[in-house]
Amino acid sequence: MRSGPREIVTPFRPIPLDVPEGLKHNEFFNSTENLNDLANNNGLLMNPENLLLYRKALGHSTEFDCSIIYNTSKTILNPLGRPVRRTQVAENVKQIWNRMNQIVIDYMLEQYPDPDEALILAGEASLDATWPLTSPGVPSIRMLHNHFVVFPKQVLRDAKAADPDDPNLTDGGQHSLFQAYMRDVYRDFFDKALHLQILKPASEADARIALTGYPQGLPSWEVQGGAAALKDVHFWREYDEVLKGFIDFYRSFFSQVSTHNAPMLPDVYFPEQVESVLLFNNDFMKTAKKVRDHCIVDAKYANAIRWQPAFKQLIYRNDAGKLIVTISQNSIGNAITELLGVVVKRIPDADAYASHEPALVARLLEVRRRLIEADLGEGVATAHWPGA
Question: In 174-275, at which residue ranges do the beta strands (DSSP E only) sit?
């Protein structure tokens, strides 16, 4: 079978939300009122740390699809002031977050043990305040949340080929700014900055899903020890180290784009490596100049730049059954699934969704049961399921 990105069609039940007159949809989605609807209609579990497990109403997959959101909508009313990445979360909240992640991933691996039968992924995408609220493609909820998704591989095999030039696919490798102009220094920085024991560098061939041909050209690491390693707090610390390295690279690069020969930022995580690997690298500085010069003469190009760290970080299972961690620059409008070459076309179809709903909800309620058993929250009652 020919390798290439796939486009699947996923039905959803239209959400009965009334957006107040004069308020744009993406402005409403950031409101406490919308988060009330998310919790009351699709919430599964809530804990005192304000971590909410919920069903994805506009989902990627009807097989298994849920998220955990750090719901700060009532404690931080300014949507631009909410935590939007793991490095901004208090340690006590992060500990609960990591344990919830581990249990949900473990459930997916248990229920779908064959890598030939199911593509499994879990991860976060940044929701930083990098655009004006009214810009097209701006993230709909500015709070840290992650995704847990399972795609049956037969669905992907049967799906039509996606357009390889789809802009939502292009940040997965060869079209990315980092990969196109700074590939060597990008990887060299990760190698020198990160001192990892559980994560070991993976080859592109090992990281790639053969069916889709993705990810493409991204730094990737194999989780030594597989699913058992996710029960080790040291794995999650290394997962954060990967994010910190990415943030240092991103912020250092765009500080040079913004200002010629800018001094090293005062709050980087790896100052020695930033100075020696990045700020003294000709390719790094040359690329920053190229982008700066383009910004000066092209308003549309400059407006599209995300000046603050924008990323997708993923744990997924490769074709050999190994768990892989990767991280990517994030571009406007793309979904976390597209990092693995899966483009999801959502269509409103209540009847089609209803045919999948009982099995989907049963799986989500089993995950909830396991989280409650591990003292990670209490069940949320909705019109679709009881609270326990």
Answer: 199-201, 220-223
